[in-house]
Amino acid sequence: MTKNRARKPKLTFQSAILIGVVLTVAVILILKAQRSSIDAAVRLLSTTTGSGTTAVQVSSPTRVATSTPTTSTPADTPDPAKPDPPTARPDDPTAAGLAAADLAALPPEAQVDWLLAEKRPIFAFFHSNTCRQCTDMTRIVDQVYPDFNGRVYLVDVNVYDKGNQNLLRRANLRAIPTLIFIDRNGEAKGYTGVMPADALREQLESLAGGQ
C-alpha cells in the first residue's frame, strides 16, 4: 500500500505576481518618504532666498558672551594656550563710552551684543571671501556703506571664521551671502543673495532714519 506523501505547495504564477506587486509598492513608498524629506530640506533653504526681505530674529543675550560657544565639532574647540581676549560687556560702566575703534576690535558677536544693548542700528553682513555671490555683494557694500558710516553700524561676519559659529547659530543662518538689518528696537529683517545697490541704500537709509 502506497503511503500518501505531503506535497509542498507550489508557487503559482498568480502568487508570484502578487508578491512582485507588494514589493514594488513597498519600494515606491520608501522612495516617496525619502523624497519628501529631501523636499522639506530644500524648502527650508529656499525660504530665505529671493529678491525680497524676510523677518529674522537674532537672539539677544543679557551680556556679551565671553566664553567659547559649546559645540560638538572638535574643530571648534578652543586652544587652551590661546585664551579669548577680554571683551566689553553692555553692563560694564565703561561700555557706553566704547570708542568706534574699540568696537571694531571686538569679535563680531560681541559687536552685535553691544550694539543691541545700546539700541544702535546694525547692518550684519554674513559672507565668505571666496563664493562669487559673496564677492559681488562685498563690492556693493564697499560702494554703498561709506555713505552711512557712523549712522548705521556694519558688523562684518566671515562665516568660515570658527570664532563666529555661535553667532551663525543665533542668526539661524542658512545660506550666504545673507544681510540682516536690525533697527534700534531690535527688530530684524534678512535678505539672502546679492542685493542691488539701490535696494541696499534704501534699507540703510531706513535704518539710519528710524527712531
Structural class: alpha+beta
- Rg computed from alpha carbons, rounded to a whole number of angstroms: 28 Å
User: Mind telling me the CATH superfamily name of the largest domain?
Assistant: Glutaredoxin
Mean pLDDT: 73
CATH class type of the largest domain: Alpha Beta
* CATH topology call of the largest domain: Glutaredoxin
CATH architecture of the largest domain: 3-Layer(aba) Sandwich
Helix content: 25-40%
How many strands in all?
Answer: 5
Provide an overview of this structure.
The chain is an alpha+beta fold. It folds into 2 domains: 13-46; 54-75 and 85-209, 3-Layer(aba) Sandwich (Glutaredoxin). Helix content is 39%, strand content 12%. The protein is built from 6 helices and 5 strands. It has helices at residues 13-46, 100-105, 108-117, 132-144, 165-170, 197-209, and strands at residues 54-56, 122-127, 153-158, 178-182, 188-192. Strands 1-5-4-2-3 form a 5-stranded mixed beta sheet, sandwiched between helices. Strand 2 (122-127), helix 4 and strand 3 (153-158) form a beta-alpha-beta unit. The longest helix has 34 residues, at 13-46. The model is unreliable at 36-56 and 60-96 (pLDDT under 50).
